[in-house]
Amino acid sequence: MTDGPDVTDHLELLIDPLQPRHRWWRLPVDAWQRSLPLRVVSTTFVASVIVMVLGGILLMQQAAIGVLNAKDQAANGQANFAVRTAQAQLDALNIDSDTNINDTLAGILTDISDKSGSTGGYYVIVESQLGTQKSSNDISETSVPQNLRQWVQARPNDTRLWKAPTEVRTLSGQNVPGEAFGTTLQVPGTEGYQVYVIFPMEQEAETLRSLQQAVVITGAVLIFLLTFIAGLVARQVVSPIRAARRAAERLASGNLEDRMTVRGKDDLARLALSMNYMASELQKQITQLEELSRVQQRFVTDVSHELRTPLTTVRMAAEMLYEAREDFDPVAARSAELLQVELDRFESLLTDLLEISRFDAGAAVLAPAQTDINDLVDRVLGGTASLAASSNTEIRVHSPGEITAEIDSRRIERVLRNLVVNAIEHGESRPIDILLASDEDAVAIAVRDHGVGFEAAQAKQVFHRFWRADPSRERRIGGTGLGLSISMEDTRLHGGWLNAWGRPGRGAQFRVTLPRRAGAILQQSPLPLVPRDLISPLPLPPADEQPGLPPAPPEQGSQLHDHDHDLAGSAIGNEAEDLR
């Protein structure tokens, strides 16, 4: 049974009808949720990037540590050798006979500078009270870090070799990182000379840059390859799954002969075999069910027609006995009356069975015409007036005025008659309210009784054939048990809804919603499914209220019934209907 659109959609439109239903940021989220290959490829890509970045950082750290340690060891050995060589030459120098110490220092600088050879160049700077001498004019004195100079100058008698990182500044090239070593050369009779050996690390920096570029290029290539491989694997796995989904959709649409192609012997091939086996079994079962359904429909139709002839004969005899019952003794007269009643019920049952067989065979035809709903309700009440009077039941109609729709009046009158008779039978002689409402697209008729009701879980079962809420309860009116089923089929034939609401001890309400124009599609009902007397504390309008008259003021105890005043009730009713 179709209950109409989901209540969440109605609530979203009521909150902000101008707000777009699909926001832009939902597009990537929807794509992520709907595509398994996209999730696999994206996850592989992100994981590969993280692994490559962490691995590249670790590799560069280890490489930098190794290169710098090797350079540090080599530079430390060269600096020690240069300082020992210079100190040995100064120890062998005769200060008294040597009149030009600057020439001597220049020779020492040339000597220890030439020792660098091909193992890596370095610069030597000597500072003394006589001035500063350099092994190369290309090196700037600012290449010696200030903290190292201060440390060495503060310890003139300490011959240990100190080192500090620095930035080598040359006049012919760019500044490069380097390492500086410093100590004091001891000269008898003087304060000594500060000697600084500076090692540029241009080659090491270039090596690390080349290694970094290689790591980045290799990582990018590996990420691309891993992502591509993940895409291929996902495609191999997802393609059979998609084929199975398409096969299931084709099976659901009725193509029971469709089968999947089986390739290989792996799990995916077994999935295809299982799908094909399931399709074969479904085809077999559906064929059997269709055959049984045809046999059942043919049986019901044939039996209904075949019983017409003996029923006509029995009815003729029963009518003769019924008309002559006054001449019989009381027992025979009562038997004639019961025979007449049961024959009427039997004829109604045959009529309903024929109508059900037409619906099952798809032979029911709709004949819509513009109809006044109020006149239709009046005809139904006229036909059930004697039944309502015998049950001492008051029926009240609440109509906002003229309501018309393109409907098959014969079928809808039968629907309303079934609902009213059902309400009288289960209403426990309490008042019955018939509510009418309409909007631009739909009309709705609700029949509300205050009788025994039924459980909320039975709201759909009441439309099943021959169903009873209480099997021990006997029908006082003598219905066939097919009335609500036929009413549901008549309503569906109009493209409408027939919904039921009930609670034990609080009565029941049946609502019929029909499109105002034949063939239109319903979106919502003008009436809530939950009874108004449970939604609003105001009582229903009085029984003598006339259609089209203005409603009484609220302080007089009446209730407005225009559609604009029922928006809240309609939303609650639709929500209760969907939750059910």
UniProtKB/TrEMBL annotation:
Histidine kinase domain sequence ranges: 302-518
Entry-linked SUPFAM superfamilies: ATPase domain of HSP90 chaperone/DNA topoisomerase II/histidine kinase (SSF55874), HAMP domain-like (SSF158472), Homodimeric domain of signal transducing histidine kinase (SSF47384)
Enzyme class label: transferase
Record region (Disordered): 533-580
GO molecular function, one term: ATP binding
EC number of this enzyme: 2.7.13.3
Regions of compositional bias (Pro residues) in chain numbering: 538-554
Subcellular location: Cell membrane
Segments forming domain HAMP: 235-287
TM regions (residue ranges): 36-59, 214-234
Keywords: ATP-binding, Cell membrane, Kinase, Membrane, Nucleotide-binding, Phosphoprotein, Transferase, Transmembrane, Transmembrane helix, Two-component regulatory system
Domain of life (superkingdom): Bacteria
Any one of the GO CC terms: plasma membrane
Catalyzed reactions: ATP + protein L-histidine = ADP + protein N-phospho-L-histidine
A Pfam entry, by short name: HATPase_c
Record membrane topology: Multi-pass membrane protein
Listed PANTHER family: SENSOR HISTIDINE KINASE CPXA
Protein's UniProt name: Sensor histidine kinase MtrB
The species this protein was found in: Microlunatus endophyticus
